[in-house]
Amino acid sequence: MRRFVAPAFFLFTSFAASLPAQQPAASRGDVYQLKPTPKTVAWGHYDAKVPPVLRIKSGDTVEVQTLISFSPDQLETAGARPVQVEQSLRDIYREVQDKGPGGHILDGPISVEGAEPGDVLEVRIENIRLALAYAFNTFMPGRGLLPEDFPYARGKIIPLDEKRMVALFGNGIEIPLHPFFGSIGVAPPEVTGRVSSGPPWIHAGNLDNKDLVAGSTLFLPVFTKGALFQIGDGHAGQGDGEVDLSALETSLTGTLQFVVRKDIHILWPRAETPTHYITMGLHEDLNEATKIAVREMIDFLVNEKHLTRDDAYMLASVAADLHVTQLVDGNKGVHMMIPKGIFRRGQ
Description:
Layout: E1 2-4, E2 31-34, E3 41-43, E4 45-46, E5 54-57, E6 61-66, H1 72-77, H2 87-95, E7 105-113, E8 120-130, E9 134-139, E10 154-161, E11 166-170, E12 173-176, E13 180-185, E14 195-196, E15 204-205, E16 217-221, E17 229-235, E18 252-261, E19 270-272, E20 276-283, H3 286-304, H4 309-319, E21 321-326, E22 332-339
Parallel strand pairs: 1-2, 2-6, 5-7
Antiparallel strand pairs: 3-7, 4-14, 6-18, 7-17, 8-16, 8-18, 9-10, 10-11, 11-12, 13-15, 13-17, 16-19, 19-20, 20-22, 21-22
Helix pairs in contact: 3-4
């Protein structure tokens, strides 16, 4: 059944790393829809003490509608027509008072019944659709990878051709689209308090991982009762690194199924696509982020593919690829991808 949701007013432990392939099809539960309103979004933070706006059960599916995380004034100054700015964005900018410390407008939190600290929340990204006919890219003084080279601000409205799935950047340049949610995560451990939506961390959050498109599955360690899932920061596309601070920023609609996993335990977010297993490292130092991603891949290969640690290290070197996920959000991101095709069926 489909439920249309009105706004609701509701120890940090280390675990041995483990991630099997996606669980066999979970029983299909109820289907909900969550729209962004001043009462159904968290502005700029993940926080274990924020009450959920929606409560669901394991196996349920939610259609989320997320908003571009820039102000109507910024979009109109860059060239968007007033009619192109969503009314829900105007409402949120006018009415939401509890803001920060980050700048992302995130749907949620969503509480998943039965999720407890130490569990894993499996998030199956079933579908992602464009919600606007344009994207926005911007750089700002003091931000991005090269603030010394670009000590000023500029924003650019970039038309999107949904039929051809390309962005019309200009001057004959067309960019293939691969929509994904830049920020997708759960509440951090309660002892950390409110954390900014800017830097990604163990709770995931602002991963900016362009491989998390429709058909992918994200595995998130749970740190608080209900997990308290949030999502937003829609991107129509992005280059690895996101060097100027932003991607093809836009509004998106997505369909996600949530499954509570009590049979696996992980330290850091991981993911799976139809073709690859993905581990992630997040740290203010790029080398340390890389080491985390590689160690997580070694642990995955040891625990799930039953390799020795020596062979796992070797296989990571000869068959897995490292990508710089993003460099501009405080904690830098690195993800490592190993193709499923190298493993014999049943391995």
